[in-house]
Design goal:
four-stranded antiparallel β-sheet
């Protein structure tokens, strides 16, 4: 006959037997939340704090971390340990045959026993956590450091809800692992496996894509990374605690509730059919052992091999397969030992071991030989909405105020609609190059036979009609890319999206400097109206310039813009900008730098306006104005004709110092006499920086020291 005892009484009795754990949770949360908050707030309560808006903003950003134990990694670790202890102590009776027989002999349904253990553990976690959260709120309010507004209350409440959701998903994951096993030691390993398995499996796919697919390019968080975050209980636990005060909080919380509910349902169903004879065994359901071993070995062995190779910086290839197979063999042996605790039975499950090893080889072969066609993927024109092409040189040629602006420019520099065929031809050429062994990684390797500037890397971003975004990178012939880019730049709208100077508010700039061909930067003493007029003139020249000028012409100077803090742009006044500019002349240029605004000889509007402001660009250097000149030449240029002429002409006087560095691979020459300085300046070739030039190669550089205290810099071909 089934007992009618209420679940509440069972919960109270369960907690009474685990009162030591309830006390431990209460003390731990008390120390980690209100006590730590008192100490932290006391350290922040310095003189003048209330009048410092930066300090207040900093505190508001970190205030929620006081409510979910994410302030310190140690606190988050203790939080997770408390969750694990509540699970193990609540369900460890299923790992003891005597206790399990006693529990199963009670006239209480298994579902009610499960509910009692389940809810008592949550009660011991949530009650002290919520009480300490309330005490922490009282401590913050009593400190008087921040006004307790509705916004602050929402931040604190989000953090508390984040802690509740993080506990829920990790708690259910651990219970599911415990119900799968029959021993406490095995249960601990299972808790780790269940919590991180999705993370390992999905990140293995991500690492394999990066290591084996030559056209792989990551513009942000990929689908596999997002799934790894949202499907892994351990990942959810950590990221919910960290993100509980940001906009992504609700998505993560909803995911945690769904994953936790699925794990809770699975553990409840397994508990109802948990066999009494399973106590003391490694697994509660022995028939699941081969399946679990295969599922664990395949991703874990690959993940371990990839980590080792990446740490040792060994390129992938056949060594990846060999190391993964070795890891699979060792892991199979370890799992069999855990199952049987007998060295003589390591090869008992040889069939499942062979299946796991074969699975490892099969997965690696799929990526090694690109059986999915990843590198050869090219969307059909009918499903393509837009395509963006971003050569590697653009990262150096263009300068954007912030990381988000650069990412937006890279992904949204769409090719003109009437130039889609040219973009397709470039992509197909890149795919053909991949098939011929010319990959983006190889074009910058010194041992490669195509590092002479013939090829360069370009990233293609495809936006499909379905809304899906696909990114690939290829090695493209430089002449093909120049031809296509000439057509792209003929479109004014494409040019306007590509160049950052067209996208900024020209009326809000802190400073503008000009850097001549010899690397000397000069602050332009202009008022806001003059700065805006100069940038407008530069934009006019830029939009009217011939594409060949932007691609092949040698610049005569470059402008550098210093922009205000983006957070202050909407509120900054003209007087504030004047003050900022004035202060920059004594303390250094202020604001966010946006450089690489190249001025070409045909930019008449810009050059004429600079001249009217009293700034004439230097076209030559007078050796009499220099104190010294130091030329450093790299190995590829040492045998050049110009360098040999310099060597032959340099006078061997006290003004010349020849230094060999790095075992003779790099030669530096420092001169101080006007004759030697003039000789070097007349025989050096300055490196050209164009839209499609190779910024990663250089023949050397020249450091210039002027008598007026200024310094210059020249990069050599």
């Amino acid at each position: 006959m089934t007992s009618k005892i209420s679940c509440v009484k069972l919960i109270r009795e369960n907690i009474r037997h685990r009162m030591w754990l309830a006390a431990l949770c209460a003390v731990a949360f008390l120390l980690m939340m209100p006590v730590y908050s008192i100490l932290y707030l006391n350290s922040m309560n310095g003189p003048g704090y209330e009048q410092d808006p930066d300090q207040l903003s900093f505190f508001l950003d970190y205030l929620p971390t006081l409510f979910n134990c994410s302030r310190l990694a140690l606190f988050a670790g203790v939080f997770a340990i408390l969750v694990l202890l509540c699970v193990l102590t609540g369900f460890w009776h299923i790992h003891s045959r005597e206790k399990l027989d006693l529990y199963h002999a009670l006239p209480v349904r298994r579902g009610r026993l499960y509910a009692a253990s389940y809810l008592s553990g949550l009660t011991m976690l949530y009650v002290p956590y919520l009480v300490c959260a309330a005490l922490t709120a009282a401590v913050v309010a009593a400190s008087g450091l921040v006004p307790m507004t509705g916004h602050v209350a929402v931040l604190c409440l989000r953090a508390v809800l984040g802690g509740i959701a993080a506990v829920f998903v990790l708690y259910n994951a651990c219970i599911f692992a415990v119900v799968l096993t029959g021993r406490t030691v095995t249960a601990l390993l299972a808790c780790l496996a269940v919590s991180v398995y999705p993370l390992i499996a999905l990140y293995s796919i991500f690492m394999l894509q990066g290591d084996f697919f030559h056209s792989f390019y990551n513009t942000g968080q990929t689908l596999t990374e997002r799934l790894a975050l949202h499907l892994s209980p351990a990942g959810l636990f950590i990221f919910i605690l960290q993100e509980s005060s940001t906009g992504s909080f609700f998505t993560l919380t909803a995911t945690a509730i769904v994953i936790g509910a699925v794990l809770m349902t699975a553990s409840f169903l397994l508990y109802r059919i948990y066999p009494s004879e399973a106590a003391g065994n490694a697994l509660a359901f022995p028939r699941s052992a081969p399946v679990l071993k295969v599922l664990i070995v395949i991703p874990c062995s690959i993940f371990a091999a990839l980590l080792i190779l990446d740490f040792m910086q060994i390129p992938n290839g056949i060594i990846t397969i060999l190391l993964s197979v070795l890891a699979a063999v060792l892991l199979c042996a370890v799992i069999e030992f855990i199952f049987h605790m007998d060295l003589r039975k390591l090869f008992r499950g040889w069939k499942s071991s062979l299946t796991a090893i074969a699975g490892v080889v099969a997965v690696l072969c799929v990526f090694q030989f690109d059986l999915t066609g990843y590198d050869s993927y090219l969307p059909d024109e009918g499903e393509l909405k837009t395509v963006s092409i971003y050569p590697d040189s653009f990262s150096y040629y263009f300068s954007y105020p912030g990381y988000d602006d650069r990412t937006k420019a890279e992904t949204e520099s769409y090719v003109p609609a009437d130039q889609t065929d040219a973009a397709y031809a470039l992509a197909q050429s890149g795919i053909n190059n991949l098939e011929n062994g010319i990959t983006p990684d190889s074009i910058y390797e010194s041992a490669s036979n195509h590092t002479d500037g013939e090829y360069m890397t370009a990233v293609f971003h495809y936006t499909l009609n379905s809304g899906r975004n696909v990114s690939r990178q290829y090695a493209i012939r430089r002449d093909e890319l120049k031809e296509a880019m000439t057509g792209f730049l003929a479109d004014k709208e494409y040019r306007r999206r590509l160049f950052p100077v067209t996208q900024i508010d020209k009326s809000r700039t802190n400073d503008i400097t000009v850097t001549d061909l010899y690397g000397t930067e000069e602050l332009l003493e202009l008022d806001p109206g003059q700065r805006e007029a100069l940038l407008n003139a530069y934009e006019t020249d830029l939009m009217n310039a011939d594409p060949d000028t932007l691609i092949n012409e040698t610049e005569v100077a470059q402008l550098n813009i210093y922009l205000p803090d983006p957070d202050d742009v909407s509120t900054a006044e003209t007087s504030d900008r004047r003050t900022s500019r004035a202060s920059s002349s004594t303390t250094g240029y202020s604001g966010y730098l946006m450089g690489e605004l190249y001025i070409y000889p045909g930019f008449s509007n810009t050059l004429d306006l600079l001249g009217s402001y009293g700034y004439t660009l230097s076209e030559d250097i007078d050796p009499a104005e220099l104190i010294s000149l130091r030329m450093t030449v790299y190995p590829d240029s040492v045998s050049g004709e110009s360098f040999e002429k310099i060597q032959a002409g340099l006078s061997r006087t006290a003004s010349v110092e020849i230094i060999e560095e790095y075992s003779g691979e790099t030669i530096s020459v420092e001169v101080t006499s006007e004759e030697d300085i003039a000789l070097i300046l007349d025989n050096i070739s300055q490196k050209h920086f164009g839209m499609l030039d190779d910024y990663n190669t250089s023949g050397g550089y020249v450091d210039i020291s002027y008598k007026n205290g200024e310094f210059g810099y020249i990069s050599l071909e």
